[in-house]
């Protein structure tokens, strides 16, 4: 039997039908399109069985799959290493083209270049598109062609370019579901992929409070941020649509979306920042790295209510409010003098919105080792942060129900920890 001529669209961090760039182009090609998702064992093998992100990906794909069924089409789900999967699909189908949206993480770039090599050896065209960001790679660089490492000038250039290109940056027309390959691929169970359903669920985005975002975003008890982060991470919303909406709605909110792109371009240009201080001048810091203190921090038992509430929110929901993320990160690096990489790894394990670029970028920012970071001598006082941003203790009582029964003493006194942090940083800075 002759193999069917088809094109493939490979879903990765773009789990939606609407305004999906590579998918839209795939459907313009002359061949019917098979939408594919690969549960990549190179990643899955590192995750706990009930990983909440896997549940979210699975449920999202299931939903997309259901929407295709009335058109006698379906999503093909595969599990394995990416090259194994592609090798076997190349045997099974007469693939005429592969379409995917770009992913800028170091691991993804390596994976995609191996796939590109495989396809080019077979003479099959591969088309990759910008979709995860408004501006990528070298779209926003300094006049000398080098990447920006400071946020504000990056943001200004981003806004100028956005204004110039706004008319081109329109969402794509709706797709035709008739152009997919007609076949009902069996949708596997989550268990057959090796996972179980998590009790932690991703929240729906909430855009109802964005008008007042600049006034309310720092107060965790108000709960007025957008909850978009996992949706941007997995592409269940289109950044193009969102940015065009945000520019009309609230500039402070748009600035946050620009922070996301800032860190994505930093990671693209400086992939070593995943494992190294962005500023090598800080390589001499003598971290204390005390394991039992790290455990207290992870469990939310530091005796500082705001820190503990944040860590408990993270452990129970896979989410933490941004202001509180800044406070807990500063506490780990400065008060406990634990290397930011430990905190980054813990967040990576727990956060539903874990995004390598934002996580590394923000952790290095909090540690003072990153690009455009907070100066090392600025040490957040967790009690003052609590008075300012949770003055009535609504947020802390939500996550620490025993708070009013007499709360544990702080594991380290603020004034002592602050002086120790500043002295340790000062002694560790390598002057060039
Ligand atoms: P909103 O306040 O509604 O913001 C809207 C969107 O803007 C967010 O969804 C996000 O995409 C982006 N954004 C907002 N703040 C930042 C920021 N500081 N840096 C980059 N993008 C931002 N965000 C992640 O998406 N993944 C991470 O792994 C991550 N790790 C973090 C680690 C630390 C130590 C800190 C301090 C922050 C981290 N952030 C991370 C950034 C920020 O805390 C979250 O994006 C935000 O809290 C998500 O909630 P929201 O969608 O309601 O945010």
Automatic annotation (TrEMBL):
MF terms (GO), sorted A to Z: deoxyribodipyrimidine photo-lyase activity; DNA binding; FAD binding
Electron transfer via tryptophanyl radical (site feature) positions: 287, 340, 363
Binding site for FAD: 213, 225-229, 253, 256-263
Pfam families, alphabetized: DNA_photolyase (PF00875), FAD_binding_7 (PF03441)
Signal peptide segment: none
GO biological process, alphabetically ordered: nucleobase-containing compound metabolic process; response to light stimulus; response to stress
Bound cofactor: record note: Binds 1 FAD per subunit.
Listed cofactors: FAD; (6R)-5,10-methylene-5,6,7,8-tetrahydrofolate
Keywords from the named record: Chromophore, FAD, Flavoprotein
All copies of domain Photolyase/cryptochrome alpha/beta, residue ranges: 5-134
UniProt similarity note: Belongs to the DNA photolyase family.
The protein's name: Deoxyribodipyrimidine photo-lyase
Taxonomic lineage: Bacteria, Pseudomonadati, Bacteroidota, Flavobacteriia, Flavobacteriales
């Amino acid at each position: 039997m002759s193999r069917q001529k088809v094109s493939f669209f490979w879903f990765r961090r773009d789990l939606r039908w609407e305004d999906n760039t590579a998918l839209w182009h795939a459907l313009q090609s002359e061949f019917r399109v098979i939408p594919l998702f690969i549960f990549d064992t190179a990643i899955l093998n590192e995750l706990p069985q009930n990983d909440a992100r896997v549940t979210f990906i699975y449920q999202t794909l299931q939903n997309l799959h259901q929407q295709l069924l009335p058109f006698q089409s379906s999503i093909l789900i595969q599990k394995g290493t990416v090259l194994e999967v592609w090798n076997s699909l190349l045997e099974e189908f007469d693939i005429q083209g592969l379409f995917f949206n770009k992913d800028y993480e170091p691991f993804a770039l390596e994976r995609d270049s191996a796939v590109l090599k495989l396809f080019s050896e077979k003479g099959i065209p591969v088309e990759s598109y910008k979709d995860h960001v408004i501006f990528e790679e070298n779209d926003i660089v300094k006049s000398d062609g080098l990447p920006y490492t400071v946020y504000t000038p990056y943001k200004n250039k981003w806004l100028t370019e956005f204004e110039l290109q706004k008319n081109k940056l329109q969402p794509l027309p709706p797709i035709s579901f008739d152009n997919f390959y007609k076949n009902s691929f069996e949708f596997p169970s989550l268990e057959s992929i090796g996972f179980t359903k998590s009790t932690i669920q991703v929240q729906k985005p909430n855009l109802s409070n964005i008008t007042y975002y600049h006034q309310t975003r720092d107060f965790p008890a108000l709960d007025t941020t957008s909850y978009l982060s996992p949706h941007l991470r997995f592409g269940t919303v289109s950044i193009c649509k969102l940015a065009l909406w945000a520019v009309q709605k609230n500039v402070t909110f748009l600035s946050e979306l620009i922070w996301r792109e800032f860190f994505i371009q930093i990671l693209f240009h400086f992939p070593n920042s995943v494992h190294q201080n962005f500023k090598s001048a800080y390589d001499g810091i003598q971290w204390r790295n005390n394991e039992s203190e790290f455990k207290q921090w992870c469990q939310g038992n530091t005796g500082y209510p705001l820190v503990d509430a944040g860590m408990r929110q993270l452990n129970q929901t896979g989410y933490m409010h941004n202001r509180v993320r800044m406070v807990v990160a500063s506490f780990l690096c400065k008060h406990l003098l634990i290397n930011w990489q430990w905190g980054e790894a813990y967040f990576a394990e727990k956060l539903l919105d874990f995004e390598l670029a934002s996580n590394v970028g923000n952790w290095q920012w909090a540690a003072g080792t990153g690009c455009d970071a907070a100066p090392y001598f600025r040490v957040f006082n967790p009690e003052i942060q609590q008075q300012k941003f949770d003055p009535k203790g609504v947020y802390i009582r939500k996550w620490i129900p025993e708070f009013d029964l007499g709360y544990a003493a702080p594991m380290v006194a603020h004034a002592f920890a602050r002086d120790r942090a500043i002295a340790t940083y000062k002694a560790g800075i390598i002057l060039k």
